[in-house]
Design goal:
Elements lengths: L14 E3 L1 E3 L2 E3 L6 E5 L6 E6 L3 H17 L7 H17 L1 H12 L3 H24 L3 E3 L6 E9 L2 E5 L5 H6 L2 H6 L3 E5 L6 H13 L6 E3 L4 H10 L5 E5 L2 H10 L6 E5 L4 E5 L5 H13 L9 E7 L3 H13 L19 H16 L3 E4 L3 E2 L7 E2 L2 E4 L6 H4 L6 E7 L2 H9 L6 E5 L3 H10 L4 E4 L18 E2 L4 H6 L2 E9 L9
Helix pairs in contact: 1-8, 2-4, 2-7, 3-4, 8-9, 10-11
Bound molecules: ligand TXE.
Length: about 500
């Protein structure tokens, strides 16, 4: 973490990234490397080491050793907190460098990367508090001769498998929570976006985290991810990614009945009533669609608009979309960046064709934009003539594509919103508080908003209903998720003998 060059454009040479195991950066000769080309510029920016199942074994063994030694797992919470606070300060100190590489590998506009790095630091500060306040229960209600305590303990070795869409913030919404109670971790970032995870491991080491507590094994899902999910010496696993891969991880994790936390896909409704502030709602819906170029698990990808306001709202929304600044990722005025890979862009475009085959049409946008040489940019798209039974309304597209549908009455809005295999997020727009609260109670989603979208802080848990996942990350729940609960029963005084 000592190199900050001219952080204004892509690097001259791709950077070679090794594994991080037991506090050491491994660059051994026989490692193979996978090139990563930048979504915003097309050129290779990093070469990522392809870890093996043997590397996973080595990392898990290191994590286990330090856990058993107790240098982190039994460290007083206040000392753990100091290290987490120091890590947050170092994140802020290296923010520009982290944001630079996040933008290069993930294709985000630099302003968004900066905000994510800053928010990431906030999670470490928040978890420093939780490391000191995590507590249990006592039972003083059993009479004079029995007393009860419930304590929380770290679980042991946790595996963390992360996606490419928010490499640093998804890491920050999990890693400090896993660390706060004293666990050790082996992380597998997405093979497309490994830089900031490796940088974070170095930052934590510099902050004073004992070697072996955080290990990073980069590489592919079927090799490294699968080995972690199957590993019999890993107690818990956190996976964020597609529902299909989540299912594979869940199956593999039964090797030793790991505790699993899965954050998976979404097809999230934006329900807009005619009595909303329609200008605010149009801005919010545009933001929810275009943020991270729609490659966001909580992206608002289904607009469910009250019929009487449809015409006015779609016109307001189209006007907003025309003004979204899609641009060079290193232009600090850019609001929307590039699509993560050519393969993913093809997948998004295939849904535009599918919408037409299903009887809908593209009412706005969807075309490729030539912004930088080699960059993969798409204009956000509105799909009209859509009904909720179509595949474009049911499947996660994971791009800036909005399926527009109408409703009449609250019951129909709820029915359409909940008619989905997913249940990750939902937003309601109305100025009527009874309607807002009534609706939010009825929609099935783990992360919901009233008159805003994709906003929040570290205190509130994240996760989904149905096929959107299992368990919750973040907040106090996010720390508790990675603890074992132990009941302790204490006999007080002379025992009343069973055999006299
Ligand atoms: O995800 P994968 P992909 C959705 C989105 C996107 C689709 C595919 O719809 O279009 O998933 O993206 C690792 N065992 N989301 O293919 O495969 C993989 O290396 C263990 C939603 O990139 O789920 C990466 O580190 N791990 C989402 C991670 O899993 C395996 C975020 C996620 O990759 C593995 C990203 C295996 N067998 C995509 N195979 C969200 N919820 O935010 C792969 N991996």
């Amino acid at each position: 973490m000592n190199e900050i060059s001219k952080l204004s454009g892509p690097p001259q040479q791709p950077k070679r990234l090794g594994l991080f195991i037991d506090g050491k950066n491994e660059q051994r000769d026989e490692l193979e490397f996978l090139p990563r080309s930048s979504p915003g510029y097309g050129m290779e920016v990093t070469h990522v080491a392809l870890g093996t199942a043997a590397d996973v074994d080595k990392a898990v063994a290191a994590a286990r050793r330090v856990f058993d030694r107790g240098s982190w797992s039994r460290m007083p919470g206040a000392e753990r907190a100091r290290i987490l606070v120091k890590a947050a300060a170092l994140i802020r100190e290296h923010a520009e460098e982290l944001a630079y590489w996040e933008t290069l590998e993930a294709g985000k506009p630099i302003s968004q990367s900066r905000a994510e790095i800053n928010d990431g630091a906030g999670h470490y500060e928040y978890c420093a508090g939780l490391a000191q306040t995590l507590h249990g229960q006592t039972f003083n209600t059993y009479g004079d001769d029995l007393f009860g305590l419930v304590i929380r303990e770290p679980m042991g070795v946790v595996a963390l498998i992360n996606p490419w869409n928010f490499p640093f913030i998804v890491l920050s919404e999990r890693l400090p929570y896993i660390l706060a109670s004293g666990n050790s971790v082996v992380i597998k970032p997405s093979e497309m976006t490994s830089y900031t995870t490796l940088a974070m491991a170095s930052i934590l080491q510099e902050a004073g985290l004992p070697d072996g507590v955080v290990n990073v094994v980069t590489g592919t899902g079927p090799v490294v991810g699968q080995a972690l999910a199957e590993h019999r010496d890993v107690e818990a696993i956190s996976f964020t990614g597609s529902t299909r891969t989540g299912e594979a991880v869940l199956r593999a994790s039964t090797s030793n009945f790991k505790k699993t936390s899965l954050e998976l896909g979404g097809k999230n409704p934006q329900i807009v009533f005619a009595d909303a502030d329609l200008e605010d709602a149009a801005d919010g819906v545009a933001f929810g669609l275009c943020f991270n170029a729609g490659q966001c698990c909580v992206s608002g990808s289904r607009l469910i608009i009250e019929k009487s306001a449809q015409e006015e709202f779609v016109s307001l929304l189209s006007e907003k979309l025309k003004r979204v600044r899609i641009g060079d990722n290193f232009d600090s005025a850019s609001q929307m960046g590039a699509i993560v890979s050519t393969q993913h862009r093809d997948k998004i475009e295939s849904y535009l064709t599918l919408a037409q085959e299903e009887g809908g049409h593209v009412a706005y946008g969807g075309e490729r934009l030539s912004i930088t040489e080699g960059g993969r940019f798409l204009r956000p798209a509105l799909l009209a003539g859509i009904t909720n039974n179509m595949r474009v309304a049911q499947e996660e597209i994971f791009g800036p594509v909005l399926s527009v549908m109408t409703f009449e009455g609250q019951d129909q809005a709820v029915q359409i919103a909940n008619d989905s295999p997913y249940g990750l997020a939902a937003s309601i727009w109305t100025k009527n508080i009874d309607k807002a609260l009534g609706m939010i109670r009825r929609v099935r989603g783990g992360r919901t908003w009233i008159n805003t979208t994709i906003a929040g802080g570290p205190g509130q848990p994240l996760g989904g209903y149905r096929q959107s996942g299992v368990g919750r990350e973040g907040g106090l729940t996010g720390v508790e998720e990675y603890t074992e609960v132990k009941s302790i029963h204490v006999g007080v005084g002379k025992r009343n003998h069973w055999i006299s």
